[in-house]
Automatic annotation (TrEMBL):
Cofactor binding mode and count: Binds 4 Cu cations per monomer.
Cofactor needs: Cu cation
Regions that span the bilayer: none
Reaction catalysis annotation: 4 hydroquinone + O2 = 4 benzosemiquinone + 2 H2O
PROSITE patterns: MULTICOPPER_OXIDASE1, MULTICOPPER_OXIDASE2
Family: Belongs to the multicopper oxidase family.
Protein name: Laccase
GO BP terms: lignin catabolic process
Domain Plastocyanin-like stretches: 31-143, 157-304, 432-543
Molecular function, one GO term: copper ion binding
Keyword terms of this UniProt record: Apoplast, Copper, Glycoprotein, Lignin degradation, Metal-binding, Oxidoreductase, Repeat, Secreted, Signal
GO (cellular component) term, any one: apoplast
Protein backbone atom coordinates (compact mmCIF):
# COMPACT_ATOMS: atom_id res chain seq x y z
CA UNK A 1 0.00 0.00 0.00
CA UNK A 2 2.84 2.42 0.81
CA UNK A 3 4.31 2.21 -2.69
CA UNK A 4 0.85 2.71 -4.21
CA UNK A 5 0.32 5.85 -2.12
CA UNK A 6 3.73 7.16 -3.22
CA UNK A 7 2.93 6.52 -6.89
CA UNK A 8 -0.46 8.27 -6.69
CA UNK A 9 1.12 11.31 -5.02
CA UNK A 10 3.93 11.58 -7.55
CA UNK A 11 1.51 11.04 -10.45
CA UNK A 12 -0.57 13.96 -9.20
CA UNK A 13 2.52 16.15 -8.78
CA UNK A 14 3.91 15.14 -12.19
CA UNK A 15 0.62 15.99 -13.87
CA UNK A 16 0.84 19.51 -12.47
CA UNK A 17 4.43 19.96 -13.62
CA UNK A 18 4.12 18.58 -17.15
CA UNK A 19 2.00 21.56 -18.14
CA UNK A 20 4.88 23.99 -17.60
CA UNK A 21 8.14 21.99 -17.67
CA UNK A 22 10.93 23.61 -19.67
CA UNK A 23 14.31 22.57 -21.08
CA UNK A 24 17.53 24.46 -20.28
CA UNK A 25 21.04 24.28 -21.77
CA UNK A 26 24.32 25.22 -20.08
CA UNK A 27 27.94 25.13 -21.24
CA UNK A 28 30.61 24.38 -18.60
CA UNK A 29 34.24 24.99 -19.60
CA UNK A 30 36.47 23.50 -16.92
CA UNK A 31 40.07 24.69 -16.78
CA UNK A 32 42.76 25.76 -14.35
CA UNK A 33 42.77 29.39 -13.21
CA UNK A 34 44.85 31.31 -10.69
CA UNK A 35 43.28 32.96 -7.63
CA UNK A 36 45.00 35.15 -5.08
CA UNK A 37 43.85 34.79 -1.47
CA UNK A 38 45.63 35.01 1.90
CA UNK A 39 48.37 36.89 0.01
CA UNK A 40 49.16 33.69 -1.93
CA UNK A 41 48.40 32.65 -5.49
CA UNK A 42 46.76 29.23 -5.90
CA UNK A 43 45.86 27.25 -9.01
CA UNK A 44 42.31 25.91 -9.01
CA UNK A 45 40.28 23.85 -11.45
CA UNK A 46 37.09 25.89 -11.95
CA UNK A 47 34.08 26.16 -14.24
CA UNK A 48 33.88 29.17 -16.60
CA UNK A 49 36.75 30.85 -14.72
CA UNK A 50 34.54 31.30 -11.66
CA UNK A 51 34.89 30.28 -7.99
CA UNK A 52 32.30 29.20 -7.05
CA UNK A 53 30.95 28.09 -10.41
CA UNK A 54 27.87 29.24 -12.35
CA UNK A 55 24.39 28.89 -10.92
CA UNK A 56 21.86 26.64 -12.64
CA UNK A 57 18.44 28.28 -12.34
CA UNK A 58 15.34 26.32 -13.28
CA UNK A 59 11.75 25.58 -12.29
CA UNK A 60 10.46 22.46 -10.65
CA UNK A 61 10.08 19.56 -13.08
CA UNK A 62 12.36 21.05 -15.75
CA UNK A 63 15.05 19.17 -17.67
CA UNK A 64 18.60 20.50 -17.94
CA UNK A 65 21.38 19.66 -20.39
CA UNK A 66 24.90 20.62 -19.28
CA UNK A 67 27.69 20.22 -21.81
CA UNK A 68 30.93 19.84 -19.82
CA UNK A 69 34.16 20.63 -21.70
CA UNK A 70 37.31 19.36 -19.99
CA UNK A 71 40.09 21.86 -20.65
CA UNK A 72 42.11 20.69 -17.68
CA UNK A 73 44.96 18.23 -17.26
CA UNK A 74 43.13 15.26 -15.74
CA UNK A 75 39.76 13.55 -15.89
CA UNK A 76 36.80 14.30 -13.65
CA UNK A 77 33.02 13.92 -13.42
CA UNK A 78 30.19 16.13 -12.13
CA UNK A 79 27.38 15.08 -9.78
CA UNK A 80 24.01 16.82 -9.43
CA UNK A 81 23.70 16.53 -5.68
CA UNK A 82 20.17 15.75 -4.49
CA UNK A 83 18.65 15.36 -7.97
CA UNK A 84 16.94 11.96 -7.99
CA UNK A 85 17.36 11.40 -11.75
CA UNK A 86 14.41 8.98 -12.05
CA UNK A 87 15.53 5.80 -13.86
CA UNK A 88 18.48 7.84 -15.12
CA UNK A 89 21.59 6.83 -13.13
CA UNK A 90 23.77 7.25 -16.25
CA UNK A 91 23.96 11.00 -15.64
CA UNK A 92 24.28 10.97 -11.84
CA UNK A 93 28.02 11.52 -12.09
CA UNK A 94 30.17 9.82 -9.41
CA UNK A 95 33.44 8.61 -10.91
CA UNK A 96 33.70 4.83 -11.42
CA UNK A 97 30.22 4.36 -9.93
CA UNK A 98 27.98 5.53 -12.78
CA UNK A 99 30.54 6.66 -15.36
CA UNK A 100 34.21 6.94 -16.15
CA UNK A 101 35.97 10.32 -16.10
CA UNK A 102 35.59 12.96 -18.80
CA UNK A 103 39.07 12.91 -20.27
CA UNK A 104 41.08 16.06 -21.02
CA UNK A 105 40.24 17.71 -24.37
CA UNK A 106 36.87 15.94 -24.53
CA UNK A 107 33.33 16.89 -23.55
CA UNK A 108 30.26 15.13 -22.21
CA UNK A 109 26.66 16.33 -21.97
CA UNK A 110 24.68 15.47 -18.84
CA UNK A 111 20.89 15.18 -18.91
CA UNK A 112 19.47 16.24 -15.55
CA UNK A 113 15.86 15.21 -14.98
CA UNK A 114 14.21 17.15 -12.17
CA UNK A 115 11.07 15.74 -10.57
CA UNK A 116 9.73 16.63 -7.13
CA UNK A 117 12.79 18.59 -5.88
CA UNK A 118 12.08 22.20 -4.82
CA UNK A 119 14.30 24.93 -3.40
CA UNK A 120 18.07 24.59 -3.40
CA UNK A 121 20.46 21.85 -4.47
CA UNK A 122 23.97 22.00 -5.88
CA UNK A 123 26.36 20.45 -8.34
CA UNK A 124 29.97 19.49 -7.77
CA UNK A 125 32.81 17.46 -9.21
CA UNK A 126 32.83 13.87 -8.01
CA UNK A 127 36.45 12.88 -8.62
CA UNK A 128 39.10 12.89 -5.91
CA UNK A 129 38.95 16.28 -4.10
CA UNK A 130 38.15 18.29 -7.23
CA UNK A 131 34.81 19.42 -5.80
CA UNK A 132 36.70 21.87 -3.55
CA UNK A 133 36.66 24.35 -6.45
CA UNK A 134 34.33 22.77 -9.03
CA UNK A 135 30.91 23.44 -7.55
CA UNK A 136 27.89 25.71 -7.78
CA UNK A 137 24.22 26.11 -6.89
CA UNK A 138 21.09 24.63 -8.44
CA UNK A 139 18.13 26.92 -7.75
CA UNK A 140 14.78 25.21 -8.31
CA UNK A 141 11.97 27.74 -8.34
CA UNK A 142 8.29 26.79 -7.98
CA UNK A 143 6.63 25.65 -11.18
CA UNK A 144 4.48 28.13 -13.08
CA UNK A 145 1.33 27.07 -11.29
CA UNK A 146 2.92 26.86 -7.84
CA UNK A 147 3.63 29.30 -5.02
CA UNK A 148 5.93 29.21 -2.01
CA UNK A 149 4.34 27.83 1.20
CA UNK A 150 5.28 31.17 2.81
CA UNK A 151 4.95 34.81 1.68
CA UNK A 152 7.00 35.38 -1.46
CA UNK A 153 10.34 36.89 -0.40
CA UNK A 154 11.42 40.31 -1.68
CA UNK A 155 14.77 38.95 -2.81
CA UNK A 156 17.11 36.00 -2.49
CA UNK A 157 20.80 35.22 -2.14
CA UNK A 158 22.79 32.04 -2.59
CA UNK A 159 25.43 31.50 0.09
CA UNK A 160 28.03 28.77 -0.46
CA UNK A 161 30.27 27.82 2.47
CA UNK A 162 33.64 26.49 1.32
CA UNK A 163 37.05 25.22 2.39
CA UNK A 164 40.05 27.12 1.06
CA UNK A 165 43.50 25.57 0.51
CA UNK A 166 46.62 27.46 -0.50
CA UNK A 167 48.48 25.82 -3.35
CA UNK A 168 47.52 23.11 -5.83
CA UNK A 169 45.09 20.93 -3.86
CA UNK A 170 45.21 17.95 -6.23
CA UNK A 171 48.97 17.65 -5.81
CA UNK A 172 48.66 18.08 -2.04
CA UNK A 173 45.98 15.38 -1.73
CA UNK A 174 47.63 12.94 -4.14
CA UNK A 175 50.81 13.12 -2.06
CA UNK A 176 48.96 12.62 1.24
CA UNK A 177 46.94 9.64 0.00
CA UNK A 178 49.98 7.99 -1.57
CA UNK A 179 52.10 8.40 1.57
CA UNK A 180 49.42 7.11 3.96
CA UNK A 181 49.29 10.37 5.90
CA UNK A 182 46.12 12.38 6.61
CA UNK A 183 45.17 15.17 4.19
CA UNK A 184 45.94 18.66 5.47
CA UNK A 185 43.47 20.97 7.16
CA UNK A 186 42.15 23.90 5.10
CA UNK A 187 43.97 27.21 5.34
CA UNK A 188 40.68 29.12 5.61
CA UNK A 189 36.95 28.93 5.07
CA UNK A 190 35.13 31.00 2.46
CA UNK A 191 31.69 32.48 1.84
CA UNK A 192 30.94 32.60 -1.90
CA UNK A 193 34.68 32.52 -2.60
CA UNK A 194 35.50 35.41 -0.21
CA UNK A 195 37.62 34.85 2.92
CA UNK A 196 36.40 37.90 4.85
CA UNK A 197 38.44 40.05 7.19
CA UNK A 198 39.76 37.61 9.81
CA UNK A 199 42.82 36.09 8.09
CA UNK A 200 45.17 39.05 8.13
CA UNK A 201 45.76 39.60 4.42
CA UNK A 202 44.87 43.17 3.37
CA UNK A 203 43.93 42.14 -0.17
CA UNK A 204 41.38 39.51 0.87
CA UNK A 205 37.80 40.38 -0.06
CA UNK A 206 34.63 40.07 1.99
CA UNK A 207 31.25 38.96 0.69
CA UNK A 208 28.55 41.66 0.97
CA UNK A 209 24.80 41.16 0.71
CA UNK A 210 22.96 44.44 0.24
CA UNK A 211 19.43 44.59 1.70
CA UNK A 212 16.62 47.11 2.01
CA UNK A 213 15.00 47.96 5.32
CA UNK A 214 11.81 45.97 6.10
CA UNK A 215 12.35 43.57 3.19
CA UNK A 216 12.52 39.77 3.60
CA UNK A 217 15.12 37.66 1.84
CA UNK A 218 15.43 33.96 1.06
CA UNK A 219 18.95 32.66 1.72
CA UNK A 220 19.90 29.52 -0.20
CA UNK A 221 22.72 28.10 1.94
CA UNK A 222 24.97 25.30 0.68
CA UNK A 223 27.73 23.62 2.68
CA UNK A 224 30.37 22.83 0.06
CA UNK A 225 33.14 22.50 2.67
CA UNK A 226 35.33 19.44 2.29
CA UNK A 227 35.31 18.02 5.82
CA UNK A 228 33.55 20.49 8.10
CA UNK A 229 30.05 20.91 9.45
CA UNK A 230 29.38 24.62 9.78
CA UNK A 231 27.50 26.96 12.09
CA UNK A 232 26.19 30.06 10.31
CA UNK A 233 24.62 33.24 11.66
CA UNK A 234 23.76 36.85 10.84
CA UNK A 235 24.36 39.00 13.87
CA UNK A 236 21.27 40.49 15.56
CA UNK A 237 18.92 38.89 13.02
CA UNK A 238 16.64 35.87 13.36
CA UNK A 239 16.85 33.09 10.81
CA UNK A 240 13.71 31.14 9.84
CA UNK A 241 14.43 27.70 8.40
CA UNK A 242 11.94 26.76 5.65
CA UNK A 243 13.58 23.96 3.62
CA UNK A 244 16.29 21.32 3.83
CA UNK A 245 17.73 19.31 0.95
CA UNK A 246 15.14 20.61 -1.55
CA UNK A 247 12.13 19.73 0.59
CA UNK A 248 10.07 22.12 2.69
CA UNK A 249 10.16 21.69 6.48
CA UNK A 250 8.02 23.02 9.29
CA UNK A 251 9.22 26.58 9.78
CA UNK A 252 11.21 27.38 12.91
CA UNK A 253 13.29 30.32 14.10
CA UNK A 254 16.87 30.24 15.32
CA UNK A 255 19.82 32.56 15.91
CA UNK A 256 22.07 30.18 13.97
CA UNK A 257 21.90 27.15 11.70
CA UNK A 258 24.01 24.00 11.60
CA UNK A 259 24.61 22.56 8.14
CA UNK A 260 26.64 19.48 7.20
CA UNK A 261 28.78 19.05 4.08
CA UNK A 262 26.49 18.21 1.20
CA UNK A 263 23.37 19.67 2.76
CA UNK A 264 21.39 22.66 1.49
CA UNK A 265 19.12 24.83 3.61
CA UNK A 266 16.65 27.57 2.69
CA UNK A 267 16.33 30.30 5.31
CA UNK A 268 14.27 33.50 5.53
CA UNK A 269 15.73 36.63 7.11
CA UNK A 270 14.06 40.02 7.51
CA UNK A 271 16.03 43.27 7.39
CA UNK A 272 14.15 44.66 10.37
CA UNK A 273 16.96 46.05 12.55
CA UNK A 274 18.50 49.49 12.70
CA UNK A 275 20.18 50.33 9.40
CA UNK A 276 23.82 49.32 9.49
CA UNK A 277 26.35 46.67 8.60
CA UNK A 278 26.00 43.36 10.39
CA UNK A 279 28.40 40.48 10.25
CA UNK A 280 27.35 37.18 8.81
CA UNK A 281 29.73 34.52 10.03
CA UNK A 282 30.52 30.84 9.80
CA UNK A 283 32.71 28.50 11.84
CA UNK A 284 33.09 24.71 11.99
CA UNK A 285 31.23 22.38 14.33
CA UNK A 286 32.83 19.13 15.43
CA UNK A 287 32.39 16.32 17.96
CA UNK A 288 35.56 14.50 16.86
CA UNK A 289 38.73 14.01 18.87
CA UNK A 290 40.56 15.31 15.78
CA UNK A 291 38.76 18.60 15.22
CA UNK A 292 39.00 20.88 12.18
CA UNK A 293 40.77 24.22 12.43
CA UNK A 294 38.51 26.65 14.29
CA UNK A 295 38.50 29.64 11.95
CA UNK A 296 35.67 32.17 11.77
CA UNK A 297 34.95 33.56 8.30
CA UNK A 298 32.90 36.72 7.88
CA UNK A 299 30.61 38.39 5.38
CA UNK A 300 28.55 41.57 5.58
CA UNK A 301 24.74 41.92 5.71
CA UNK A 302 24.58 45.56 4.62
CA UNK A 303 21.56 47.84 4.65
CA UNK A 304 21.26 50.02 1.55
CA UNK A 305 22.93 53.44 1.67
CA UNK A 306 24.53 52.81 5.08
CA UNK A 307 28.20 53.71 5.41
CA UNK A 308 30.05 52.57 8.51
CA UNK A 309 32.14 49.85 10.09
CA UNK A 310 31.49 46.52 11.78
CA UNK A 311 33.04 45.13 14.92
CA UNK A 312 34.52 41.63 14.94
CA UNK A 313 34.04 41.39 18.69
CA UNK A 314 30.27 41.35 18.11
CA UNK A 315 30.36 37.94 16.40
CA UNK A 316 28.69 35.27 18.50
CA UNK A 317 28.48 31.69 17.34
CA UNK A 318 28.28 28.41 19.27
CA UNK A 319 31.68 27.03 20.18
CA UNK A 320 33.03 24.50 17.71
CA UNK A 321 32.62 21.63 20.19
CA UNK A 322 29.18 22.71 21.47
CA UNK A 323 27.34 19.45 20.82
CA UNK A 324 24.25 20.74 22.66
CA UNK A 325 23.91 23.53 20.08
CA UNK A 326 24.34 20.95 17.31
CA UNK A 327 21.76 18.50 18.67
CA UNK A 328 19.27 21.19 19.69
CA UNK A 329 19.19 22.61 16.18
CA UNK A 330 18.90 19.24 14.43
CA UNK A 331 16.10 18.07 16.74
CA UNK A 332 13.82 20.88 15.56
CA UNK A 333 13.71 19.75 11.92
CA UNK A 334 10.33 18.29 10.93
CA UNK A 335 8.51 17.62 7.69
CA UNK A 336 5.53 19.79 6.79
CA UNK A 337 2.33 18.61 5.15
CA UNK A 338 2.04 21.37 2.53
CA UNK A 339 0.80 20.84 -1.01
CA UNK A 340 4.21 21.86 -2.38
CA UNK A 341 5.78 18.74 -0.83
CA UNK A 342 5.10 15.21 -2.06
CA UNK A 343 2.62 13.46 0.24
CA UNK A 344 4.36 12.12 3.35
CA UNK A 345 4.68 8.38 2.78
CA UNK A 346 6.94 6.82 5.41
CA UNK A 347 7.32 3.04 5.15
CA UNK A 348 5.46 1.54 8.11
CA UNK A 349 6.92 -1.15 10.35
CA UNK A 350 4.84 -3.74 8.52
CA UNK A 351 6.14 -2.51 5.13
CA UNK A 352 9.83 -2.95 5.92
CA UNK A 353 11.29 -5.99 4.16
CA UNK A 354 14.96 -4.92 3.90
CA UNK A 355 16.84 -3.96 7.05
CA UNK A 356 20.51 -2.97 6.99
CA UNK A 357 22.60 -2.09 10.04
CA UNK A 358 25.83 -0.28 9.13
CA UNK A 359 28.72 0.73 11.38
CA UNK A 360 30.95 3.66 10.37
CA UNK A 361 34.61 3.58 11.33
CA UNK A 362 38.06 5.00 10.62
CA UNK A 363 40.67 2.25 10.52
CA UNK A 364 44.27 1.40 9.56
CA UNK A 365 45.47 -0.64 6.66
CA UNK A 366 49.07 -1.47 5.75
CA UNK A 367 50.57 1.13 3.44
CA UNK A 368 52.39 -0.85 0.76
CA UNK A 369 53.39 1.52 -2.06
CA UNK A 370 56.82 3.06 -2.52
CA UNK A 371 55.71 6.52 -1.39
CA UNK A 372 54.56 5.42 2.08
CA UNK A 373 56.07 7.26 5.04
CA UNK A 374 54.13 5.20 7.62
CA UNK A 375 53.66 1.46 7.98
CA UNK A 376 49.90 1.72 8.50
CA UNK A 377 47.90 4.20 6.43
CA UNK A 378 44.42 5.51 7.05
CA UNK A 379 41.32 3.67 5.89
CA UNK A 380 37.61 4.08 6.53
CA UNK A 381 34.85 1.53 6.31
CA UNK A 382 31.18 0.63 6.39
CA UNK A 383 30.61 -2.67 8.22
CA UNK A 384 34.38 -3.19 8.12
CA UNK A 385 34.49 -3.04 4.31
CA UNK A 386 36.69 -0.29 2.87
CA UNK A 387 35.42 0.54 -0.61
CA UNK A 388 37.73 0.24 -3.61
CA UNK A 389 36.90 1.98 -6.89
CA UNK A 390 36.92 -0.44 -9.82
CA UNK A 391 38.62 0.17 -13.19
CA UNK A 392 35.26 0.65 -14.96
CA UNK A 393 32.05 2.06 -13.54
CA UNK A 394 29.83 -0.22 -11.47
CA UNK A 395 26.72 0.84 -13.41
CA UNK A 396 28.16 -0.28 -16.74
CA UNK A 397 29.30 -3.58 -15.22
CA UNK A 398 25.86 -4.16 -13.71
CA UNK A 399 23.98 -3.19 -16.87
CA UNK A 400 26.17 -5.30 -19.16
CA UNK A 401 26.65 -8.14 -16.68
CA UNK A 402 30.44 -7.76 -16.69
CA UNK A 403 31.85 -10.09 -14.05
CA UNK A 404 34.68 -9.37 -11.62
CA UNK A 405 34.01 -5.65 -11.21
CA UNK A 406 31.92 -5.72 -8.01
CA UNK A 407 30.26 -8.18 -5.66
CA UNK A 408 26.61 -8.18 -4.56
CA UNK A 409 27.46 -9.21 -1.01
CA UNK A 410 27.75 -6.11 1.16
CA UNK A 411 27.06 -7.34 4.72
CA UNK A 412 23.64 -6.31 6.08
CA UNK A 413 25.09 -6.52 9.63
CA UNK A 414 28.53 -5.66 11.04
CA UNK A 415 30.83 -8.69 11.36
CA UNK A 416 31.02 -8.21 15.13
CA UNK A 417 29.11 -6.32 17.82
CA UNK A 418 30.90 -4.44 20.57
CA UNK A 419 30.38 -1.23 22.55
CA UNK A 420 30.54 0.92 19.41
CA UNK A 421 30.41 4.28 21.19
CA UNK A 422 32.12 3.24 24.42
CA UNK A 423 35.49 1.98 25.58
CA UNK A 424 37.24 0.14 22.76
CA UNK A 425 40.12 -1.19 24.84
CA UNK A 426 41.00 -4.63 23.52
CA UNK A 427 38.72 -4.37 20.47
CA UNK A 428 40.48 -5.38 17.27
CA UNK A 429 38.21 -4.92 14.28
CA UNK A 430 39.66 -6.33 11.07
CA UNK A 431 39.01 -4.44 7.84
CA UNK A 432 38.82 -5.84 4.34
CA UNK A 433 38.90 -3.97 1.05
CA UNK A 434 36.54 -4.54 -1.83
CA UNK A 435 33.83 -3.26 -4.15
CA UNK A 436 30.73 -4.67 -2.49
CA UNK A 437 27.17 -3.52 -3.18
CA UNK A 438 23.88 -3.52 -1.27
CA UNK A 439 21.26 -5.06 -3.57
CA UNK A 440 17.50 -4.66 -3.14
CA UNK A 441 14.47 -5.24 -5.34
CA UNK A 442 12.35 -2.54 -6.91
CA UNK A 443 9.58 -1.59 -4.49
CA UNK A 444 11.33 -2.86 -1.35
CA UNK A 445 10.68 -0.88 1.81
CA UNK A 446 14.16 -0.26 3.20
CA UNK A 447 15.35 0.70 6.68
CA UNK A 448 19.02 1.54 7.20
CA UNK A 449 20.46 2.18 10.67
CA UNK A 450 23.77 4.06 10.58
CA UNK A 451 25.85 3.61 13.74
CA UNK A 452 28.93 5.69 14.53
CA UNK A 453 31.85 4.08 16.32
CA UNK A 454 34.79 5.45 18.25
CA UNK A 455 37.23 3.74 15.91
CA UNK A 456 39.80 6.27 14.81
CA UNK A 457 38.95 9.67 16.26
CA UNK A 458 35.20 9.11 16.30
CA UNK A 459 33.07 12.08 15.32
CA UNK A 460 30.06 12.73 13.11
CA UNK A 461 29.60 11.50 9.56
CA UNK A 462 27.36 13.22 6.96
CA UNK A 463 26.09 10.31 4.87
CA UNK A 464 24.72 11.06 1.40
CA UNK A 465 22.63 8.66 -0.70
CA UNK A 466 22.47 9.36 -4.43
CA UNK A 467 19.23 8.90 -6.37
CA UNK A 468 16.95 9.21 -3.34
CA UNK A 469 15.48 11.37 -0.67
CA UNK A 470 14.87 9.35 2.48
CA UNK A 471 12.92 9.88 5.68
CA UNK A 472 15.01 10.48 8.79
CA UNK A 473 12.86 8.54 11.26
CA UNK A 474 15.10 8.09 14.27
CA UNK A 475 18.23 9.13 16.14
CA UNK A 476 19.84 8.55 19.49
CA UNK A 477 23.07 8.61 21.47
CA UNK A 478 24.96 5.46 22.35
CA UNK A 479 24.48 2.09 20.68
CA UNK A 480 21.33 1.35 18.69
CA UNK A 481 19.00 -1.11 20.42
CA UNK A 482 16.88 -2.97 17.89
CA UNK A 483 14.35 -3.98 20.55
CA UNK A 484 13.60 -0.62 22.13
CA UNK A 485 14.80 2.21 19.89
CA UNK A 486 12.30 1.68 17.03
CA UNK A 487 9.54 2.63 19.48
CA UNK A 488 11.00 6.15 19.51
CA UNK A 489 10.84 6.60 15.72
CA UNK A 490 9.03 9.58 14.25
CA UNK A 491 6.79 8.08 11.56
CA UNK A 492 4.41 11.06 11.46
CA UNK A 493 6.46 13.98 10.14
CA UNK A 494 10.09 12.90 9.60
CA UNK A 495 12.10 15.25 7.35
CA UNK A 496 12.87 14.19 3.80
CA UNK A 497 16.62 14.44 3.19
CA UNK A 498 19.44 13.27 0.94
CA UNK A 499 22.30 13.85 3.41
CA UNK A 500 22.03 12.91 7.09
CA UNK A 501 24.51 13.64 9.86
CA UNK A 502 25.24 10.64 12.06
CA UNK A 503 26.33 11.93 15.51
CA UNK A 504 29.77 10.81 16.61
CA UNK A 505 28.45 8.99 19.67
CA UNK A 506 25.15 7.79 18.31
CA UNK A 507 23.03 6.48 15.45
CA UNK A 508 20.35 7.49 12.97
CA UNK A 509 17.65 5.48 11.18
CA UNK A 510 16.34 6.22 7.68
CA UNK A 511 13.55 4.69 5.62
CA UNK A 512 12.56 4.85 1.97
CA UNK A 513 10.85 2.89 -0.77
CA UNK A 514 13.28 1.56 -3.39
CA UNK A 515 11.37 3.07 -6.31
CA UNK A 516 14.27 4.40 -8.41
CA UNK A 517 16.05 1.56 -10.24
CA UNK A 518 19.75 1.97 -10.78
CA UNK A 519 23.19 2.01 -9.23
CA UNK A 520 23.41 4.69 -6.53
CA UNK A 521 26.45 5.72 -4.49
CA UNK A 522 26.21 6.04 -0.69
CA UNK A 523 29.14 7.67 1.07
CA UNK A 524 30.37 9.95 3.81
CA UNK A 525 30.50 13.56 2.58
CA UNK A 526 33.68 14.21 4.54
CA UNK A 527 36.05 13.94 1.60
CA UNK A 528 38.88 12.44 3.62
CA UNK A 529 36.61 9.56 4.71
CA UNK A 530 35.40 8.92 1.15
CA UNK A 531 39.04 8.92 0.00
CA UNK A 532 39.76 6.26 2.61
CA UNK A 533 36.82 4.04 1.64
CA UNK A 534 33.74 5.02 3.72
CA UNK A 535 31.27 4.27 0.96
CA UNK A 536 29.27 1.58 -0.79
CA UNK A 537 26.82 1.19 -3.67
CA UNK A 538 23.07 0.65 -3.51
CA UNK A 539 21.77 -1.34 -6.47
CA UNK A 540 18.01 -1.22 -6.97
CA UNK A 541 17.08 -3.94 -9.43
CA UNK A 542 14.65 -3.29 -12.27
CA UNK A 543 10.95 -3.75 -11.76
CA UNK A 544 8.72 -5.73 -14.11
CA UNK A 545 7.93 -2.92 -16.58
CA UNK A 546 9.80 -0.41 -18.73
CA UNK A 547 8.57 2.38 -16.43
CA UNK A 548 10.19 0.66 -13.44
CA UNK A 549 13.50 -0.13 -15.17
CA UNK A 550 16.73 1.74 -15.86
CA UNK A 551 16.68 3.81 -19.06
CA UNK A 552 18.89 2.47 -21.88
CA UNK A 553 22.59 3.27 -21.72
CA UNK A 554 23.40 6.42 -23.72
CA UNK A 555 25.89 5.94 -26.56
CA UNK A 556 27.79 9.08 -25.53
CA UNK A 557 29.06 7.84 -22.15
CA UNK A 558 32.79 8.57 -21.57
CA UNK A 559 34.93 5.60 -22.44
CA UNK A 560 36.76 3.79 -19.67
CA UNK A 561 40.48 3.17 -20.16
CA UNK A 562 40.09 -0.61 -20.06
CA UNK A 563 37.04 -0.94 -22.32
Amino acid sequence: MGLVRWFVGVLFLSTLLLCSADVHHYEFFVRESKFKKMCNTSTLLVVNNSYPGPEIRVHRGDTVFVNVHNRGKYGFTIHWHGVKQPRNPWFDGPEFITQCPIRPRTNFTYKIILSEEIGTLWWHAHSDWTRSSVHGAIVILPAENETYPFPTPDGEQTIILESWYNGNLKKIIDKALASGTPPPQPDAYAINGHLGDTYGCPTDTIFRMEVDYKKTYLLRIINAAMNEQQFFTIMNHTLTVVALDASYVRRFKSDYILISPGQTMDVLVSANRNAGQYYMATRPSSDSAVAPVDFITTGIFQYTNFVGGSNASLITLPAMNNTDAMLNFISRIRNTNVTQNPPINVPADTDINRRVFITLAVNDLPCKNSKCVVSDGFAASLNNVSFVYPHIDVLQAYYRNIRGVFAENFPFLPPEFYDFTGNLTGVVSAVEVGTRAICVNYGDAVEIVLQSTQMGAGGSHPIHLHGYSFYWVGAGLGNFNGETDPSTYNLVDPPLMNTIDVPGTGWVAIRFFANNPGVWYMHCHFERHTSWGMSTVLIVRNGSTIETSIRPRPSTMPRCHRT
